[in-house]
Specification:
The chain is an alpha/beta fold. Helices cover 54% and strands 13% of the residues.
Length: 284
């Protein structure tokens, strides 16, 4: 099987490493705009060969994996509609799905099989240098097939997801975006807001040496790729605003409890602690 990976950052690089490790007979072709990135990817064992020309990269590919920031996917799909092999499987790894699925329906011919994908795995560091073969191990991998995607294409992608060590999870694109906005996109924005609030303080020079594990853990997601995260917000605005508004109301409640010295604060904190413990226990 020839697999083309379009985009060789953290996710694309990790997919390449994992597939090379778990399916060594597959031929992995990488696409990047810069030749030095391709050379690095080959040297790192992420791909077998690479191209700076997208048409050449996807030629004769049975599977094409788009692992780029979401707002770049539309133009990539438009080009693939002209150059990708008929009958091939095309998938993506973007953190939002509704807009991507709309572009795929609009731009790709019915002879191509598009299945949206989103691995629920990652880390705050970005770029090919941060790629690791075990990134997707024991994670959920969301899949949103177009209606015309063949059963064979779906089966192929399920197999590839399982080779990555992940568990396929089929869901509707709109439902995906609404849910992920609360558990992924909201935490990213809260983390960034925490860093902005503290680092912009005139007391930050005195604060920063004292910031320890609590601050580090809560601010971790602020280290994510700014372009990637901005694209996420642009393509999932309504759902993210809902969760931001809901969080703001809860934060106001906490403020009032702190301001009034209410005994209810301890009970509210205890409920939050219990909810988190239940979530952690459910994942064991």
């Amino acid at each position: 099987m020839r697999i083309a990976i379009v985009g060789l950052g953290l996710i694309g690089g990790s997919i390449g490493l994992s597939l090379k490790q778990n399916n060594p007979t597959a031929e992995i072709i990488g696409y990047a705009r810069r030749l030095d990135r391709i050379k690095t990817a080959i040297k790192s064992g992420i791909i077998d060969s690479g191209e700076t020309n997208l048409d050449n990269a996807v030629k004769e590919a049975g599977v094409i994996i788009i692992a780029t920031p979401v707002l770049t996917i539309k133009d990539i799909l438009r080009q693939l509609a002209r150059s990708a092999p008929q009958g091939c499987l095309i998938t993506d790894t973007a953190s939002t799905k509704s807009q991507v699925m709309e572009w795929a329906r609009e731009l790709l011919p019915s002879t191509m099989n598009f299945i949206g994908g989103h691995p629920m795995a990652g880390k705050e560091t970005c770029g090919m240098e941060a790629a690791e073969s075990g990134l997707f191990q024991d994670s959920i991998y969301c899949l949103t097939p177009l209606k015309n995607a063949s059963a064979e294409a779906v089966s192929t992608l399920v197999h590839l997801v399982e080779l990555l060590g992940a568990s396929p999870f089929f869901m509707d694109a709109k439902e995906h975006d609404e849910i992920v906005a609360g558990i992924s996109h909201l935490p990213m924005l809260l983390s960034a807001a925490l860093v902005s609030t503290t680092a912009d303080s005139p007391f930050w020079a005195e604060m920063s040496p004292l910031a320890a594990s609590g601050y580090r853990d809560t601010s971790r997601l602020a280290s994510g790729n700014p372009t990637l995260n901005a694209h996420i917000c642009a393509t999932n605005k309504e759902a993210i605003l809902f969760w931001l508004d809901t969080f703001s109301k809860n934060l106001q409640t906490y403020r009032e409890l702190v301001a009034t010295g209410s005994d209810a604060l301890e009970k509210t904190l205890a409920r939050a602690r219990m909810a988190r413990e239940e979530w952690l226990n459910s994942r064991k």
